[in-house]
Amino acid sequence: MLSGFNHLTLAVTELDPSVVFYSELLQLRLEAQWDTGAYLSLPGLWLCLSVDPLRKKTPAADYTHYAFSIGAQDFPVLVARLKAAQVVSWRDNRSEGDSFYFLDPDGHKLEIHVGDLPSRLQACRQAPYAGMEFFPAS
């Protein structure tokens, strides 16, 4: 049986700009770095950056993205830092809780979000998505 999410690996075109982006701008802890990769972390997240010559910097057309949790008090500070660094935004927030959607140097779609699954479910119970069904806790 699965016990949790283990790690996330992102293919990158250039290691140094990605390490700077994730460690300095987003403030993940840099754990290790080598010629073609790096390990960074947040509580509960192990992120691997891996240089891949097949990676293109063009963002995918779909909605697939990676969301990071952030406290309400830290949200405006990080959004201001991202905007000051001229990070590209890719979507406006349309859901419960504050969110900022942005791209990393390789076009990976990212989000910082204030809230969690229980707060999202509560908002959805008040205004459900079309065809939404809720299931009892097991």
Automatic annotation (TrEMBL):
Keywords: Metal-binding, Transferase. This is Fosfomycin resistance glutathione transferase. Residues 4-115 form the VOC domain. It comes from Pseudomonas tehranensis. Gene3D superfamilies: 2,3-Dihydroxybiphenyl 1,2-Dioxygenase, domain 1 (3.10.180.10). PANTHER family: FOSFOMYCIN RESISTANCE PROTEIN FOSX, LYASE, PUTATIVE-RELATED-RELATED. The keyword Electron transport does not apply. One of its GO terms (molecular function) is transferase activity.
